[in-house]
Structures are given as structure tokens and as C-alpha cells.
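Human: If only I could read C-alpha cells as easily as an amino acid sequence. Underneath my words sits a plain record pairing an amino acid chain with its C-alpha cells. Take your time, and here it is.
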Amino acid sequence: MSLHLNQTLRERIEASPRALYGGWVCSGSPVMAEIMAGSGLDWVLIDMEHAPNGLESVLSQLHAVSGYPVTPVVRVPSADPVIIKQVLDLGAQSILVPMVSTSEEAQAVAEAAHYPPAGRRGVGSALARSARWNRVDNYLQDAAAHVAVFVQIETSEGVDNAREIAATPGIAGVFVGPSDLAASMGLLGQQTHPEVVAAVRRAFEGVVHAGKPVGVNAFHEQTARDYVAAGVSFVLVGADVALVARASEHLAATFISDDAEHRSSY
């Protein structure tokens, strides 16, 4: 039996006439992942860097979103080649690697994600979900087409090297992280500071000049729209945990404050 794999984020971007809007899944919950996947968003990011996720929970979330027309991306916690290999073997076709600031670091990431001779990814397709246990014809030969490797620029050094990072063979695109970028600029927590926004846009320019798609994290609606207008191809516009946090706070403020006001009127 021959099986076909889904589109990678790279292929989804190439086929889309507009920017792709995504949501972060930080809860570690396959239920929350499925809720986000069924929302109508274009893609979801399953996070291993700042979320309580291990290999088993990532696998559960990949299963949970697989029945929906959404493209999953897994952000690994670091550029560790062992973790990259394991996440790809789980069946993640699109990965995001954080804190890449030089072309040399990008090259190491690309090599970890691709089989020889292009890279050094360990061969275990017969044992892994990535090739559906050898049910995907010619998986080893076509593996580069089944995998999309994105790297994250999050430092001033990375902004300076954006064009070279994006041009690295085996890197499908670049995602800019304004939060850590702001911190690296001495502007912790000020993602929309004019200097940070200017640095983000400089990174965009470098990536676009290299002919690769660029994305960004932007939870503020107008900021996200401004970045899309500036040429980003994919953007994260919210996170499961943040959505629940704000909605639950709204519930508490609505009912508890109303009840307290009602009681004080007696």
C-alpha cells in the first residue's frame, strides 16, 4: 500500500495567494491542539521550547490535528541534531528551530534535518511514522521534498545575518521572533518599540532578498496586519493558553464584578 504525505509549510506558502495565519499550541494538550486545528487557521505551531512537551505529547498532538486541513509545524527546543531527528521521525514535516543567528548555525540545522549526502540525519524510516513505516514510496530518496526546515531569528546578530541565514541550502524560510529580539536589544518586553519594529523589518528585507519566505510572531492585530503589508508570508496571531487566559479573565470580571456590584446595592 502506497501512502502520500501532506503539504509542508513551504508548499502551503508557495501555493497560497495570501499570508498564512497560524496559532500557537503551548498547552501540551492534544485536545487544545485539535480545537486550534479546527478553528479555520491555516497552520498551528506545536511548541517544545516554552511548553511542557516531550516526544510523546508532540506525537499525540500531531495525531490530533491530522484530521483537519491545517498545517502543523513543530518548534524544537534547540538545534540539537538528536532532537531534530526524533521529531522528524515522529512525522513532523515542518519544523522551526529557535535562536539561529549565523549562517553556520543555519547550515548545522539543515544538515541535521536532511539525509546524506546533503546532511547527516540518521536513517530510521522503516521504524518511524515519518515514512509511515516504509508505506510512503521512495521516502528516503524524496525526503527533502517531505521536510521543510525553518529557522528563527531572535537576536540583533541574526538580523544582521538574515540574508545569509535565509540563503543557506536546506533552509525553507525564516521566522522572526520580536520578543527575544527586543530582549537582545535591551528592550525586554517591548516588542512593538520602534527600534524593535525597525530591526524586524530589516530582517524581513534580508530574507526576502535571499528569495525565501519570512514569517513573524505578532499577537497584536494591527501589528500583524502591518507586518503582512510589509511582506511576511506566514504569521502567528495567537496562542491557545493566551486565548484561554484572556477569556477566563473576562468571565471572572463579568460575573464576579457584576455580582459584587449587585450585592452592594442592597
Q: What stands out?
A: The first helix runs from residue 9 to 15.
